[in-house]
Amino acid sequence: MLFTTLLSAAALVGVSLAQTPQGFTPSVNTKLDVIFNSTVVKKPGELLTKALTASQPQIAIANASATETFMFVMLDLDVPGQGSNATRRTLLHAMVTDFKATTQQVLSPSVTNGKLLVSSQKGPATYIGPGPPATDTIPHRYVQLLFQQPANLNVKATDFANNQARFSFEINAFMKTNGIKAPVAGNFFTVDGKASGGAGGAGATGSRSASAGLPKSTLQPFTGAVGRTGVSVGLAGLVGGLALLGL
């Protein structure tokens, strides 16, 4: 009986520590601080609005070394199926390389010694904001993962030049193919297509997230190395296509 109780307690602790949704792999217990303007995602699964999350967030992590290079990935886990196939799919919303730690710390009660990370890149998969359809029956879960970036990573913007390359994106297969180790940090938030809310916080049923002492933007101008991309006619078409699908 005692052994069973201890196992149950350990399982509950594991769930409570996880920064990624239950059952999702790769799971991670270390928190990635995700900041939209001055709003911090203070707890995993927090409900935010489409308007608030429309632009790429700033990210921060504790104990990051200046010598490390990181890659940021964001996935929607709840894209509706097509036609008669009701199985939900994943959608790659962002893959941005070459993040480096700065000396700037995030000033927020929700962040512990978080060092702001910055990158001059906007790809290889440019950030696309959440857009779950108002007709969907559930809020969508958007997972953010931070990986140590391999020195020989060779992923190009052309790999994600159309919608289909982003749909049903398999993060575990991508990690295996490119020699990427388990994520060093993660987080996730939710967006409800039915919710109405302003740009400053969560929707009607969600709690407002914490404010952080940050400048409005620390993203550097794109210089065009690994993952070169721009807001081209092709990207505009991609964003427009996803908007029509409500993703």
Describe this structure in words.
Keywords: Signal. This is Phosphatidylethanolamine-binding protein. It comes from Clohesyomyces aquaticus. This protein is α+β, with helices and mostly antiparallel strands. The chain has a single domain (18-245), classed as Alpha-Beta Complex (Phosphatidylethanolamine-binding Protein), CATH 3.90.280. It contains four helices and eleven strands, in the order αβββββββββααββα. Strands 1, 2, 3, 4, 5, 6, 7, 8, 9, 10 and 11 form an eleven-stranded mixed beta sheet that branches. A hairpin with a 2-residue loop joins strand 1 and strand 2 (39-40). It is globular and about 50 Å long. It starts with a helix and ends with a helix.
Shape designation: globular
CATH architecture: Alpha-Beta Complex
State the major sheet. 11 strands, mixed
Q: What oligomeric arrangement do these chains adopt? A: single chain
Which stretches are poorly predicted, pLDDT < 50 over at least 5 residues? 2-15, 202-237
Strand content: 25-35%
Task: Please provide a brief summary of the model.
With 247 residues, this protein is an alpha+beta fold. The protein has helices spanning 2-17, 163-166, 171-178, 233-245, and strands at 33-36, 39-40, 46-48, 58-62, 70-79, 89-105, 114-118, 124-125, 140-148, 185-191, 210-211. The model is unreliable at 2-15 and 202-237 (pLDDT under 50).
